[in-house]
Design goal:
mainly alpha; 8 helices
């Protein structure tokens, strides 16, 4: 494979996105079958694939997970600016100032907000965390919408009264869905931060060099 090929230059994002879409398709099919099995047991009308994609069951399950991922990344990016972990490959140096801390300077190949300066640069300096914050808020909203819709669909099938968004926001069910995902994401981050102190993966930028001392922070 030529090192100048499009795939070589973008192979990491291509493979990860491909895996994501494969898993999303698998979730869609298995979720559809699972939901229809529940409907059949309750004597309700089964959903087609087209109808299932608009169901609260699919929307809630999808965005519940996306929400926690974006929250994890947003907080991880922000917290690693000022917090440290001795010996971890995920931490900045304990003592030395790093290149990412330098104030941006305009140059020929700099991104246009750096050249423009002013408010554009002020926003661009935090654009990564802001993007993840917006993705989190969007996913949080879609998770709430899907969860509310799924709950009301269940209520209708049981011939019980539905609830409004204002009523549902205080329901333990919605927050249980959120917290069970949030805690797992923070556990995953803590795992790589701590395990990378002592464990290695040769060739990975997420690992320290194999021969680096445990107590040294890259």
């Amino acid at each position: 494979m030529s090192k100048k090929s499009f795939f070589y230059r973008n192979s990491l994002s291509i493979v990860i996105l491909l895996l994501m879409f494969i898993c999303l398709f698998g979730q869609f099919l298995t979720g559809w079958k699972t939901f229809n099995k529940e409907l059949e047991e309750n004597g309700s009308t089964l959903l087609s694939l087209g109808a299932y994609i608009h169901s609260g069951h699919f929307i809630q399950a999808t965005f519940e997970n996306w929400e926690s991922e974006f929250l994890q990344m947003m907080l991880y990016i922000v917290l690693t600016v000022s917090l440290r972990q001795k010996g971890s490959s995920e931490s900045k140096s304990l003592d030395e100032k790093e290149e990412v801390d330098n104030e941006p300077k305009p140059h020929a190949k700099a991104p246009w907000p750096v050249k423009k300066g002013g408010i554009w640069l002020a926003v661009y300096k935090h654009s990564l965390s802001l993007a993840f914050a917006l993705l989190f808020l969007g996913s949080f909203g879609m998770h709430f919408y899907g969860s509310l819709k799924d709950y009301n669909e269940e209520q209708i099938s049981k011939k019980k009264p539905t609830v409004t968004a204002k009523q549902y926001i205080s329901e333990s069910r919605f927050w249980f869905e959120s917290f069970q995902n949030w805690q797992s994401e923070f556990l995953a981050v803590a795992s790589i931060v701590i395990l990378s102190i002592w464990l290695r993966e040769k060739g990975s930028p997420e690992s320290k060099p194999v021969d680096m001392p445990h107590d040294e922070t890259p």
